[in-house]
Amino acid sequence: MKYMTTAEIREKYLQFFESVGCKRLPSSSLIPDDPSLLLTTAGMVQFKPYFLHVKEFDDAYEGATTVQKCIRTNDIENIGVTGRHLSFFEMLGNFSFGKYFKKEMCAWAYEFSTNPDYLGLPAERLYFTVFEDDDETIEIWKSLGVPEDHISRLGEDDNFWRAGPTGPCGPCSELYFDQGPEVGCGSPDCKPGCDCDRFLEYWNCVFTQFDGQEDGTLAPLKTNNIDTGMGLERIAAIMQGVTNNYDTDVLRSLVAVGERLAKVEYKTDPKVDKALRIMADHSRSVTFMIADGILPSNEGRGYVLRRLLRRAVMKGHLLGIEGPFLNEYVDEIVKLMGHVYPEVVDNRETIRVMIEAEENRFGKTLTQGQAFLEDALNTLEGTVLPGDQAFKLHDTYGFPIEVTEEICEERGIAVDMDGFQSCMAEQKERARAATKDDAEAAWSTYGSVHSELLKELGATKFVGYDQLSAEAQVKAIVRNGERVDQLADGEDGEVILCQTPFYAEMGGEVGDTGTIESATAKLTVVDTKAPEKGLSAHRVHVEEGVLTVGDKVTATVDGVRRGRITRNHTATHVLHSALRQVLGEHVAQKGSYVGPDRLRFDFTHFQAMTPEQIAEVERVSNEFIMQAVPTNIYETSLDQARANGVTALFGEKYGDVVRVVEAGEFSRELCGGCHVANTAEIGLIKITTETSVAAGVRRIEAVTSFGALEYLNNLESELKATAALLRAPLFSVAERTAANLKAAKEAAQKAKAAANAVSGGALDALVANAQTAKGGYPVIISQIAVTDGGAMRQAWDELRAKMAQPGAVVLLGENDGKVVLLAAGTDEAVAAGFNAGQVIKTIAPAVKGGGGGKPTMAQAGGKNAAGIPEALKLAQDMLL
């Protein structure tokens, strides 16, 4: 067998299926277009609309071929333990939407597998499984020369694919490679489907030809489809003569990073090997997830990312790696895979900054986890740590169970592993249920009224870049989710036109408003949405008359409102560039809102901006705007745009042809929104707020043009009103306010001191009534009229000066039901047996309080003023 690198296999696969008529497409994002799915877990995800013929694939091609990056974590506990399980993997795939089917697919799979120009696998080491009733596929394999004893029939659980109880489904055929009896179970009955490692499944060909019905029957789909998946890491292991994914070229290079950082050697210690494999795998997941716009959080995709990152960090720390280290893996991943996935190159700096910030954040969480475990062990009744507490350490704080076991073992404490495994099983079941629900929901999202309209009518032609009014024809009307023929006076609904000047909300830019008029009706457009990509739905209210499908209309956008929106949209581009200049190249857009009244811009950054930085961003932005730079907007290929240094938005998905918005050399971004013709139209950018919206994400809000004028006028009005109230010059308001606040603070402090002061006469009375303690020194035990600890200490200072000989005091004060306690004594009193700390410890419980201190002085607070008499009595019993 010949040796092939991962890169060679990837390219050979794509070339092969291009040669038989498939269109090569790039991997889709790990964030699927389908909102019902958490992450992209298979190559077919981006093609679901084509399988269901909601959209039609390019008829010039036989189908599609891709290498899809995928994330799966439902078996995370097996990652690093086995040689097969990975959280990040690449899936080679080819897909047909009604063109080729079983015969072609089987022939191509056999040719690609055995032809020396491609994989060149020995035919005698290939085995095939088919669905038990699929005689057709068995005959196809036999016709290709596959011996009958190399073909196995398996049941529905193994060789019949379903998305759910209903919906698209079909039999599948899997290709296996015999790795040899030395890695098998030794059973004479060992064959594909056995749980041992001898027969490695490397290619699954799904023949999606049925539509599962509610009653369990199988109805034929409109077309016969092909959906295949070949794990790149698995076939790389075969082609490189290894039985473990982590021994393949790419993953072995990442394992080597861990060896270097931890100064350990792979394959010398099983525990070390597991840690090295986990770090190698998880680092790929983390790098690609952040490159696609996923950020660490406590829910959804962000939680998956955070858990993987922290698991890798924990393993590194167990191997003795100190400080942040995952960026060493990022650099290696960029070197190994950047030529295939340019997003990891483009977003390298953002990935690095994000990872380091999260590693530092986890350092704090790790401390909290250690505190949680310490508290759990200190309060433990018995010698077994409950499984749910061990699970919380694992799930919330990122503690691997083996670490918890080691810490507990040092104290002679066992861990309830049965309870822990029960919690793990429950979590795993939730994850699998969610995955199953995702699959079912993913298919069920198609077939809505809007998807049917898109399929029937095609995309709505948008003419609004160049004109704000257009003649059009009503192609469809929707009311309450159903298609209707008319909308009458007073009714609300959605209108679909053949073409429109109205921009549909997307990319953060709000939808246009305006009017639609026909010969018989006048409608107000209150919003414009794109419920399906390419389909513009005008949300309308009928002011008068009746609108009917087929009517000729004039659609007119509110031009004043659109003008304000375009100014704010171009301003977000200007701000993006200014932020990168001022804060650094790690700044990347994470979201935006562009309305007529204001704009909002979310971006990656890891600390609050200083006032000076905000002012500098405003200065850079407005200085550029005032240069009156014309914008240049054009379409080009995505590859050419990247080559020209155009900024692609973090995590955004793009087609082959993209629209570029340029403002000189200052700003170049891919964008489909509406923009000004010249930066001078923006007028002025004024940042109004800067806040945090998530870990590592900041938000600025700003106004431009008329919005900025209104904002500044409001500020001026407020300033003038405040100046009038203070009777100060307009630009002396801050100084006058500071002086007034200082005076008010001083007055408040004097009033508080007066309220807390104990009169000289009252102090003299306390000294006169001092009693003699058991040690022979004078002691004052009394409640006094003070309300805080500072006044209490001042009272002690004055009493000590008035006492004829060195002594001690026990004083209590009360304020709104709360109690202040102080015990204090001179050195002489302490030498005679007085201990202020012991006194407070004795009497504080009477007022439901606690505190402490030294023998010469101790203080406490309490919650129960009704206990003051008891506290005084306890002090008397102790000291007299």
General shape: globular
Q: Major β-sheet, in short?
A: 9 strands, mixed
DSSP summary: helix tally = 26
Give the radius of gyration: 37 Å
Structural class: alpha+beta
> Which regions have little confidence, pLDDT < 50, spanning 5+ residues?
435-447
Helix percentage: 25-40%
Distance between the termini: 98 Å
Approximate strand percentage: 25-35%
**Strand segment count:** 35
Output mean pLDDT.
Answer: 90
Question: Could you explain how this protein is built, in words?
Answer:
The chain has 880 residues and is an alpha+beta fold. It is built from 26 helices and 35 strands. Helix 7 packs across helix 8 (270-291), helix 13 packs across helix 15 and helix 22 packs across helix 23 (789-802).
Any key phrases for this structure?
globular
What is the secondary structure topology, with strand pairs?
Blueprint (H helix, E strand, L loop, with lengths): L5 H14 L2 E3 L23 H4 L11 E9 L16 E10 L4 H13 L11 E6 L3 H9 L7 E4 L1 H4 E3 L4 E12 L20 E14 L5 E14 H8 L9 H14 L7 H22 L8 H19 L7 H12 L4 H5 L1 H31 L5 E2 L1 H9 L5 H10 L3 E2 L1 H28 L4 H9 L3 E2 L6 E11 L2 E3 L1 E2 L4 E6 L1 E2 L13 E5 L2 E12 L2 E11 L1 E2 L3 E6 L1 H25 L5 E6 L4 E6 L6 H15 L5 E7 H6 L13 E7 L3 E4 L14 E10 L2 E8 H22 L6 H24 L3 H9 L2 E2 L5 E6 L5 H14 L5 E8 L2 E8 L1 H5 L4 H8 L6 E4 L3 E6 L5 H12 L1
Parallel strand pairs: 1-2, 4-5, 10-11, 12-17, 31-32
Antiparallel strand pairs: 2-3, 3-9, 4-7, 6-7, 7-8, 8-9, 13-14, 13-16, 13-22, 15-21, 16-20, 18-19, 18-22, 19-20, 23-24, 24-29, 25-26, 26-27, 28-29, 30-31, 32-33, 33-35, 34-35
Helix pairs in contact: 7-8, 7-10, 8-9, 8-10, 8-12, 9-12, 10-12, 13-15, 17-18, 22-23
